[in-house]
Amino acid sequence: MFSEVIMMLKILYREDTNKIYFIITHKNIILEYSSKHSKQIYNQIQEIRNKPELIKHTSNYLIAKQIISDLCLIISPSDFFSK
Amino acid sequence: MNRKTLENILPKIAPLHVNISITSDCDLRCLHCYGSYGIVKKKLSINYLKKLFLYLKNQNIIYVTISGGEPTLHPDFKNIINYLDNIELPYCLTTNGLFSNQLVNKIVESKMLLSVKVSLDGITPLSHTFIRDPKRRNKIIFLKTINTIKDLTNKNIFVTIGTLVHSKNYNQLLKFPEYLHKLGVNKWVIGPLLQKGRGHLNKTDIESNAIFKLFCDGFSNKLNKLCDLYNIDLDISDFKRIDGKKYVFECGGGIHYYHISVDKIAYPCPLIEYTKFKPDFSVKLTDPKRVIFVWNSYQFKYWREQQIIGCPNCKLRSKCGRCPIQLDILNKNIYDDIDYCLVK
Questions:
Q1: CA triplet A22, A3, B184: central angle to 5 degrees?
Q2: Is there a contact between B60 and A3 if contact means CB atoms under 8 Å apart?
Q3: How confident is the model at residue B164 (pLDDT cuts 50, 70, 90)?
Q4: Exposure check for chain B: N or C terminus, fewer CB within 10 A?
Protein backbone atom coordinates (compact mmCIF):
# COMPACT_ATOMS: atom_id res chain seq x y z
CA MET A 1 0.00 0.00 0.00
CA PHE A 2 1.16 3.51 -0.81
CA SER A 3 1.15 6.06 1.93
CA GLU A 4 0.14 9.64 1.13
CA VAL A 5 2.37 11.24 -1.49
CA ILE A 6 3.97 14.47 -0.35
CA MET A 7 5.01 16.96 -3.00
CA MET A 8 7.03 19.99 -2.07
CA LEU A 9 7.66 23.55 -3.18
CA LYS A 10 11.28 24.63 -3.01
CA ILE A 11 12.14 28.28 -3.63
CA LEU A 12 15.68 29.15 -4.61
CA TYR A 13 17.48 32.38 -5.51
CA ARG A 14 20.59 32.27 -7.69
CA GLU A 15 22.83 35.30 -7.57
CA ASP A 16 24.69 34.43 -10.81
CA THR A 17 21.51 34.36 -12.88
CA ASN A 18 19.61 36.86 -10.68
CA LYS A 19 16.58 34.60 -10.87
CA ILE A 20 14.16 33.05 -8.40
CA TYR A 21 13.37 29.39 -9.11
CA PHE A 22 10.17 27.73 -7.92
CA ILE A 23 10.58 23.97 -7.96
CA ILE A 24 7.48 21.84 -7.51
CA THR A 25 8.48 18.23 -6.90
CA HIS A 26 6.48 15.24 -8.23
CA LYS A 27 5.04 17.54 -10.94
CA ASN A 28 8.37 18.30 -12.66
CA ILE A 29 7.59 22.01 -12.63
CA ILE A 30 10.39 24.58 -12.46
CA LEU A 31 9.29 28.21 -12.82
CA GLU A 32 11.62 31.17 -13.09
CA TYR A 33 11.14 34.79 -12.07
CA SER A 34 13.55 37.53 -12.98
CA SER A 35 13.65 41.30 -12.39
CA LYS A 36 16.10 43.93 -11.20
CA HIS A 37 14.92 43.28 -7.66
CA SER A 38 14.84 39.47 -7.74
CA LYS A 39 16.80 39.12 -4.51
CA GLN A 40 14.60 41.51 -2.54
CA ILE A 41 11.45 39.87 -3.89
CA TYR A 42 12.83 36.44 -2.98
CA ASN A 43 13.45 37.65 0.59
CA GLN A 44 9.94 39.07 0.70
CA ILE A 45 8.40 35.78 -0.51
CA GLN A 46 10.32 33.87 2.16
CA GLU A 47 9.20 36.34 4.82
CA ILE A 48 5.55 35.90 3.82
CA ARG A 49 6.03 32.12 3.75
CA ASN A 50 7.29 32.25 7.33
CA LYS A 51 4.72 34.82 8.47
CA PRO A 52 1.49 34.47 6.44
CA GLU A 53 -0.22 37.21 8.47
CA LEU A 54 2.41 39.81 7.40
CA ILE A 55 1.02 42.91 5.65
CA LYS A 56 3.16 45.64 4.09
CA HIS A 57 2.61 48.38 1.53
CA THR A 58 5.91 48.22 -0.36
CA SER A 59 6.12 47.43 -4.08
CA ASN A 60 8.24 44.34 -3.44
CA TYR A 61 5.59 43.04 -1.03
CA LEU A 62 2.85 43.54 -3.62
CA ILE A 63 4.89 41.79 -6.31
CA ALA A 64 5.67 38.92 -3.91
CA LYS A 65 1.96 38.59 -3.06
CA GLN A 66 1.08 38.49 -6.77
CA ILE A 67 3.69 35.77 -7.40
CA ILE A 68 2.34 33.72 -4.48
CA SER A 69 -1.19 34.16 -5.78
CA ASP A 70 -0.07 32.91 -9.24
CA LEU A 71 1.70 29.95 -7.62
CA CYS A 72 -1.46 29.05 -5.75
CA LEU A 73 -3.14 28.45 -9.11
CA ILE A 74 -0.82 25.43 -9.45
CA ILE A 75 -0.45 24.28 -5.86
CA SER A 76 -2.73 24.67 -2.89
CA PRO A 77 -2.07 27.54 -0.44
CA SER A 78 -1.39 24.95 2.29
CA ASP A 79 1.38 23.46 0.10
CA PHE A 80 2.85 26.94 -0.29
CA PHE A 81 2.94 27.65 3.43
CA SER A 82 4.07 24.17 4.52
CA LYS A 83 7.82 23.53 4.57
CA MET B 1 20.52 31.07 -30.39
CA ASN B 2 23.24 33.66 -30.96
CA ARG B 3 26.37 34.21 -28.92
CA LYS B 4 25.03 37.19 -26.99
CA THR B 5 21.85 35.37 -25.98
CA LEU B 6 23.82 32.32 -24.86
CA GLU B 7 26.24 34.40 -22.79
CA ASN B 8 23.33 36.19 -21.13
CA ILE B 9 21.62 32.99 -20.01
CA LEU B 10 24.80 31.21 -18.96
CA PRO B 11 24.97 30.58 -15.21
CA LYS B 12 28.27 32.14 -14.06
CA ILE B 13 29.11 30.17 -10.91
CA ALA B 14 27.56 26.73 -11.22
CA PRO B 15 25.32 24.81 -13.62
CA LEU B 16 21.56 24.76 -13.13
CA HIS B 17 21.49 20.98 -12.91
CA VAL B 18 23.89 18.04 -12.84
CA ASN B 19 23.51 14.52 -14.22
CA ILE B 20 25.20 11.79 -12.12
CA SER B 21 25.78 8.20 -13.17
CA ILE B 22 25.82 6.46 -9.76
CA THR B 23 26.48 2.90 -10.99
CA SER B 24 27.43 1.04 -14.18
CA ASP B 25 25.53 -2.05 -13.01
CA CYS B 26 22.44 -2.98 -15.01
CA ASP B 27 20.05 -5.94 -15.12
CA LEU B 28 19.55 -5.61 -18.88
CA ARG B 29 22.02 -5.92 -21.76
CA CYS B 30 20.34 -3.63 -24.26
CA LEU B 31 21.60 -3.95 -27.82
CA HIS B 32 21.84 -0.18 -28.21
CA CYS B 33 23.61 0.72 -24.94
CA TYR B 34 26.29 3.29 -25.80
CA GLY B 35 27.91 2.84 -22.40
CA SER B 36 27.94 -0.99 -22.67
CA TYR B 37 26.61 -0.98 -19.10
CA GLY B 38 26.04 -4.11 -17.02
CA ILE B 39 29.33 -5.91 -17.71
CA VAL B 40 31.62 -4.01 -15.33
CA LYS B 41 29.94 -3.17 -12.03
CA LYS B 42 31.32 0.12 -10.76
CA LYS B 43 29.58 2.46 -8.35
CA LEU B 44 30.05 5.76 -6.58
CA SER B 45 30.18 5.15 -2.82
CA ILE B 46 27.45 6.55 -0.58
CA ASN B 47 30.03 8.66 1.29
CA TYR B 48 31.31 10.16 -1.94
CA LEU B 49 27.77 10.83 -3.15
CA LYS B 50 26.70 12.46 0.11
CA LYS B 51 29.62 14.90 -0.05
CA LEU B 52 28.96 15.55 -3.74
CA PHE B 53 25.25 16.23 -3.19
CA LEU B 54 25.97 18.56 -0.29
CA TYR B 55 28.53 20.60 -2.28
CA LEU B 56 26.10 20.78 -5.21
CA LYS B 57 23.26 21.84 -2.93
CA ASN B 58 25.43 24.55 -1.39
CA GLN B 59 26.10 25.87 -4.90
CA ASN B 60 22.34 26.29 -5.34
CA ILE B 61 22.04 23.61 -8.03
CA ILE B 62 18.34 23.40 -8.91
CA TYR B 63 18.25 19.61 -9.25
CA VAL B 64 20.32 16.51 -9.99
CA THR B 65 19.48 13.65 -12.33
CA ILE B 66 20.28 10.20 -10.95
CA SER B 67 21.16 7.77 -13.73
CA GLY B 68 23.29 4.70 -14.40
CA GLY B 69 23.49 1.91 -15.64
CA GLU B 70 20.37 1.17 -13.68
CA PRO B 71 20.53 3.48 -10.63
CA THR B 72 18.06 1.46 -8.53
CA LEU B 73 20.63 -1.39 -8.47
CA HIS B 74 23.04 0.75 -6.45
CA PRO B 75 23.25 -1.11 -3.10
CA ASP B 76 22.64 2.17 -1.22
CA PHE B 77 19.89 3.48 -3.50
CA LYS B 78 17.35 3.91 -0.69
CA ASN B 79 19.92 5.75 1.45
CA ILE B 80 20.74 7.98 -1.51
CA ILE B 81 17.16 9.15 -1.96
CA ASN B 82 16.75 9.48 1.82
CA TYR B 83 19.78 11.77 1.85
CA LEU B 84 18.46 13.86 -1.06
CA ASP B 85 15.19 14.23 0.86
CA ASN B 86 17.06 15.21 4.03
CA ILE B 87 19.14 17.96 2.42
CA GLU B 88 16.18 18.98 0.20
CA LEU B 89 17.94 18.62 -3.13
CA PRO B 90 15.37 17.84 -5.86
CA TYR B 91 16.17 15.00 -8.27
CA CYS B 92 14.98 13.26 -11.41
CA LEU B 93 15.40 9.51 -11.74
CA THR B 94 16.25 7.69 -14.99
CA THR B 95 15.42 3.96 -14.90
CA ASN B 96 14.38 0.88 -16.88
CA GLY B 97 11.43 0.45 -14.48
CA LEU B 98 12.37 -3.11 -13.45
CA PHE B 99 12.27 -2.81 -9.70
CA SER B 100 10.15 -4.15 -6.87
CA ASN B 101 6.76 -2.75 -5.82
CA GLN B 102 8.37 -1.96 -2.47
CA LEU B 103 10.90 0.28 -4.21
CA VAL B 104 8.17 1.96 -6.31
CA ASN B 105 6.50 2.77 -2.99
CA LYS B 106 9.73 4.21 -1.57
CA ILE B 107 10.33 6.37 -4.68
CA VAL B 108 6.75 7.67 -4.72
CA GLU B 109 7.06 8.71 -1.07
CA SER B 110 10.26 10.66 -1.67
CA LYS B 111 9.37 14.33 -1.27
CA MET B 112 12.22 15.70 -3.44
CA LEU B 113 11.49 13.54 -6.49
CA LEU B 114 10.80 15.78 -9.49
CA SER B 115 10.09 13.15 -12.15
CA VAL B 116 10.93 9.64 -13.33
CA LYS B 117 12.14 8.85 -16.84
CA VAL B 118 11.43 5.26 -17.87
CA SER B 119 12.78 3.52 -20.99
CA LEU B 120 10.02 1.99 -23.12
CA ASP B 121 10.93 0.98 -26.66
CA GLY B 122 7.72 -0.61 -27.84
CA ILE B 123 4.03 -0.91 -27.14
CA THR B 124 4.17 -4.70 -27.46
CA PRO B 125 6.39 -7.20 -25.62
CA LEU B 126 8.19 -8.06 -28.89
CA SER B 127 9.07 -4.51 -29.91
CA HIS B 128 10.19 -3.57 -26.37
CA THR B 129 12.28 -6.67 -25.69
CA PHE B 130 13.82 -6.66 -29.19
CA ILE B 131 16.60 -4.42 -27.89
CA ARG B 132 16.02 -4.68 -24.09
CA ASP B 133 16.14 -8.48 -23.74
CA PRO B 134 17.42 -9.73 -27.12
CA LYS B 135 18.32 -13.27 -26.00
CA ARG B 136 15.21 -14.29 -24.06
CA ARG B 137 12.54 -11.83 -25.31
CA ASN B 138 10.91 -12.27 -21.93
CA LYS B 139 7.53 -10.54 -21.97
CA ILE B 140 7.64 -10.20 -18.17
CA ILE B 141 10.18 -7.42 -18.72
CA PHE B 142 7.66 -5.47 -20.80
CA LEU B 143 4.79 -6.13 -18.37
CA LYS B 144 6.85 -5.13 -15.33
CA THR B 145 7.93 -1.88 -16.99
CA ILE B 146 4.31 -1.06 -17.84
CA ASN B 147 3.20 -1.82 -14.26
CA THR B 148 5.88 0.46 -12.84
CA ILE B 149 4.77 3.28 -15.15
CA LYS B 150 1.14 2.78 -14.09
CA ASP B 151 2.08 2.72 -10.38
CA LEU B 152 3.94 6.01 -10.77
CA THR B 153 1.30 7.84 -12.81
CA ASN B 154 -1.49 6.58 -10.54
CA LYS B 155 0.26 8.46 -7.75
CA ASN B 156 0.53 11.61 -9.89
CA ILE B 157 4.27 11.32 -10.36
CA PHE B 158 5.43 13.08 -13.56
CA VAL B 159 6.64 10.33 -15.91
CA THR B 160 8.72 10.82 -19.04
CA ILE B 161 9.12 7.93 -21.49
CA GLY B 162 12.39 7.52 -23.41
CA THR B 163 12.16 5.55 -26.65
CA LEU B 164 14.90 4.49 -29.02
CA VAL B 165 13.58 4.24 -32.57
CA HIS B 166 14.70 0.91 -34.05
CA SER B 167 13.90 -1.44 -36.91
CA LYS B 168 11.10 -3.23 -34.99
CA ASN B 169 9.23 -0.23 -33.57
CA TYR B 170 9.47 2.60 -36.11
CA ASN B 171 6.23 1.49 -37.78
CA GLN B 172 4.44 1.59 -34.38
CA LEU B 173 5.41 5.17 -33.51
CA LEU B 174 2.06 6.68 -34.48
CA LYS B 175 0.33 4.33 -32.02
CA PHE B 176 2.52 5.44 -29.11
CA PRO B 177 0.76 8.73 -28.18
CA GLU B 178 -2.62 7.09 -27.49
CA TYR B 179 -0.94 4.22 -25.62
CA LEU B 180 1.15 6.58 -23.48
CA HIS B 181 -1.91 8.73 -22.81
CA LYS B 182 -3.73 5.67 -21.43
CA LEU B 183 -0.74 5.02 -19.15
CA GLY B 184 -0.94 8.59 -17.84
CA VAL B 185 2.46 9.58 -19.23
CA ASN B 186 3.28 13.31 -19.45
CA LYS B 187 6.28 13.49 -21.76
CA TRP B 188 7.83 11.39 -24.54
CA VAL B 189 11.45 11.67 -25.70
CA ILE B 190 12.41 9.74 -28.82
CA GLY B 191 15.87 9.39 -30.31
CA PRO B 192 17.96 7.50 -32.85
CA LEU B 193 20.74 4.98 -32.19
CA LEU B 194 24.04 6.37 -30.92
CA GLN B 195 26.80 4.43 -32.60
CA LYS B 196 28.96 3.80 -29.55
CA GLY B 197 29.52 0.77 -27.30
CA ARG B 198 26.99 -2.01 -27.98
CA GLY B 199 25.10 0.47 -30.14
CA HIS B 200 28.02 0.42 -32.57
CA LEU B 201 28.40 -3.39 -32.47
CA ASN B 202 24.69 -4.02 -33.11
CA LYS B 203 23.85 -1.15 -35.43
CA THR B 204 23.01 -3.43 -38.41
CA ASP B 205 20.34 -5.22 -36.31
CA ILE B 206 18.87 -2.05 -34.80
CA GLU B 207 19.02 0.59 -37.50
CA SER B 208 17.07 0.72 -40.70
CA ASN B 209 17.21 3.19 -43.56
CA ALA B 210 13.43 3.28 -43.33
CA ILE B 211 13.76 5.20 -40.02
CA PHE B 212 15.78 7.97 -41.64
CA LYS B 213 13.42 8.14 -44.63
CA LEU B 214 10.45 8.31 -42.25
CA PHE B 215 11.81 11.37 -40.43
CA CYS B 216 12.71 13.14 -43.67
CA ASP B 217 9.12 13.03 -44.84
CA GLY B 218 7.14 15.35 -42.55
CA PHE B 219 6.65 12.52 -40.08
CA SER B 220 7.69 14.70 -37.13
CA ASN B 221 4.69 16.97 -37.81
CA LYS B 222 2.29 14.01 -37.72
CA LEU B 223 3.76 12.84 -34.41
CA ASN B 224 3.58 16.35 -32.97
CA LYS B 225 -0.12 16.65 -33.88
CA LEU B 226 -0.95 13.28 -32.33
CA CYS B 227 0.92 14.15 -29.15
CA ASP B 228 -0.93 17.48 -28.95
CA LEU B 229 -4.21 15.55 -29.28
CA TYR B 230 -3.27 13.26 -26.38
CA ASN B 231 -1.71 16.03 -24.30
CA ILE B 232 1.79 14.57 -24.36
CA ASP B 233 4.84 16.80 -24.52
CA LEU B 234 6.98 15.39 -27.37
CA ASP B 235 10.75 15.90 -27.49
CA ILE B 236 12.07 14.94 -30.88
CA SER B 237 15.19 17.12 -30.88
CA ASP B 238 17.56 14.20 -31.44
CA PHE B 239 15.96 13.67 -34.83
CA LYS B 240 16.42 17.26 -35.97
CA ARG B 241 19.83 16.32 -37.24
CA ILE B 242 18.43 13.91 -39.80
CA ASP B 243 15.34 15.73 -41.03
CA GLY B 244 17.40 17.68 -43.52
CA LYS B 245 16.93 21.06 -41.85
CA LYS B 246 19.74 21.04 -39.36
CA TYR B 247 22.57 18.64 -38.91
CA VAL B 248 23.17 19.05 -35.20
CA PHE B 249 20.92 20.42 -32.49
CA GLU B 250 21.70 22.88 -29.71
CA CYS B 251 21.64 21.25 -26.31
CA GLY B 252 22.40 22.40 -22.78
CA GLY B 253 25.53 20.28 -22.25
CA GLY B 254 28.14 22.50 -20.59
CA ILE B 255 25.81 25.49 -21.03
CA HIS B 256 23.35 24.86 -18.21
CA TYR B 257 24.21 21.35 -17.00
CA TYR B 258 27.06 18.84 -16.84
CA HIS B 259 27.59 15.14 -16.26
CA ILE B 260 29.52 13.20 -13.60
CA SER B 261 30.49 9.66 -14.56
CA VAL B 262 30.77 6.58 -12.36
CA ASP B 263 34.58 6.97 -12.78
CA LYS B 264 34.45 10.29 -10.86
CA ILE B 265 35.03 12.45 -13.93
CA ALA B 266 32.99 15.53 -14.90
CA TYR B 267 32.14 16.14 -18.57
CA PRO B 268 30.10 18.98 -20.13
CA CYS B 269 28.01 16.33 -21.91
CA PRO B 270 27.28 12.67 -21.00
CA LEU B 271 28.39 11.39 -24.41
CA ILE B 272 31.90 12.84 -24.38
CA GLU B 273 33.43 9.90 -22.53
CA TYR B 274 32.58 7.65 -25.48
CA THR B 275 34.22 9.89 -28.06
CA LYS B 276 37.78 10.82 -29.00
CA PHE B 277 37.27 14.19 -27.27
CA LYS B 278 37.32 12.63 -23.79
CA PRO B 279 40.81 13.94 -22.87
CA ASP B 280 40.02 17.50 -24.01
CA PHE B 281 36.86 18.05 -22.00
CA SER B 282 37.17 16.08 -18.76
CA VAL B 283 37.84 17.11 -15.15
CA LYS B 284 38.82 14.57 -12.49
CA LEU B 285 36.65 14.61 -9.38
CA THR B 286 38.43 12.20 -7.09
CA ASP B 287 37.74 14.69 -4.30
CA PRO B 288 34.02 15.67 -4.42
CA LYS B 289 34.95 19.15 -3.14
CA ARG B 290 36.43 19.87 -6.59
CA VAL B 291 32.89 19.89 -7.99
CA ILE B 292 32.80 23.58 -6.96
CA PHE B 293 35.54 24.45 -9.46
CA VAL B 294 34.36 22.36 -12.42
CA TRP B 295 32.08 24.96 -14.01
CA ASN B 296 34.93 27.42 -14.40
CA SER B 297 37.72 24.95 -15.18
CA TYR B 298 39.68 25.63 -18.39
CA GLN B 299 38.23 22.44 -19.94
CA PHE B 300 34.66 23.65 -19.45
CA LYS B 301 35.52 27.20 -20.55
CA TYR B 302 37.11 25.75 -23.71
CA TRP B 303 33.96 23.69 -24.29
CA ARG B 304 31.71 26.75 -23.99
CA GLU B 305 33.98 28.75 -26.29
CA GLN B 306 33.56 26.04 -28.91
CA GLN B 307 29.79 25.90 -28.39
CA ILE B 308 29.27 29.66 -28.34
CA ILE B 309 31.90 30.99 -30.74
CA GLY B 310 33.06 27.94 -32.74
CA CYS B 311 36.51 27.75 -34.33
CA PRO B 312 37.65 31.38 -34.76
CA ASN B 313 39.22 31.00 -38.21
CA CYS B 314 36.61 28.80 -39.83
CA LYS B 315 34.61 30.41 -42.63
CA LEU B 316 31.84 27.87 -42.13
CA ARG B 317 31.32 28.46 -38.42
CA SER B 318 27.97 30.17 -38.94
CA LYS B 319 26.73 26.97 -40.61
CA CYS B 320 28.30 24.52 -38.17
CA GLY B 321 26.34 23.20 -35.19
CA ARG B 322 29.60 23.54 -33.22
CA CYS B 323 29.06 20.20 -31.51
CA PRO B 324 31.79 17.72 -32.44
CA ILE B 325 30.21 15.13 -30.15
CA GLN B 326 27.03 14.78 -32.19
CA LEU B 327 29.03 14.37 -35.38
CA ASP B 328 31.33 11.82 -33.74
CA ILE B 329 28.51 9.64 -32.38
CA LEU B 330 26.96 9.48 -35.83
CA ASN B 331 30.37 8.62 -37.35
CA LYS B 332 29.88 11.45 -39.82
CA ASN B 333 31.63 14.71 -40.52
CA ILE B 334 30.08 17.23 -42.83
CA TYR B 335 33.39 19.13 -42.91
CA ASP B 336 35.61 16.22 -43.94
CA ASP B 337 37.44 18.33 -46.48
CA ILE B 338 38.51 20.98 -43.96
CA ASP B 339 41.97 20.25 -42.61
CA TYR B 340 41.65 22.10 -39.31
CA CYS B 341 38.14 20.94 -38.38
CA LEU B 342 38.05 19.86 -34.73
CA VAL B 343 35.86 16.92 -35.63
CA LYS B 344 38.54 15.26 -37.76
A1: 65
A2: no
A3: very high
A4: N
Distance CA B114, CA B160 (A): 11
Region A7-21: mean pLDDT is 94
Q: Check A14 against B11: CB less than 8 A apart.
A: yes
CA angle B326, B329, B335 (to 5 degrees): 60
ipTM: 0.92
Chain B residues with CB under 8 Å of A25 CB are 90, 111-114
Task: Say what the pLDDT of residue B3 is.
Answer: 53
Pairs of residues, one from chain A and one from chain B, whose beta carbons lie less than 8 Å apart: 65
Q: Which of B16, B17, B296 to mutate to test the interface with A (most CBs of A within 10 A)?
A: B16
- Percent of chain A, pLDDT > 70? 93
Q: Å from B55 to nearest chain A CA?
A: 15
Burial class (CB in 10 A: 0-12, 13-18, 19+), B318: exposed
In whole numbers, what is the pLDDT of chain B averaged over residues? 87
What's B213's DSSP letter? H
Alpha helix (H) residue ranges in B184-264: 198-201, 203-206, 209-215, 219-229
Residues from chain A that touch B155, judged by Cβ atoms under 8 A, are 2, 5
pLDDT tens for each residue of B110-123: 999 999 999 999 99
Do residues A67 and A33 lie in contact, with contact meaning Cβ atoms separated by under 8 Å?
A: yes
Give the helix, strand, coil percentages of chain A, each rounded to 5: 35, 20, 40
What is chain B's Cα-based Rg? 20
Number of H helices, E strands in chain A: 3, 3
Write the CB contacts of A41 (distance below 8 Å, at least 6 apart in sequence): A20, A33, A35, A60, A63, A64, A67
Alpha carbon distance B206, B212 (integer Å): 13
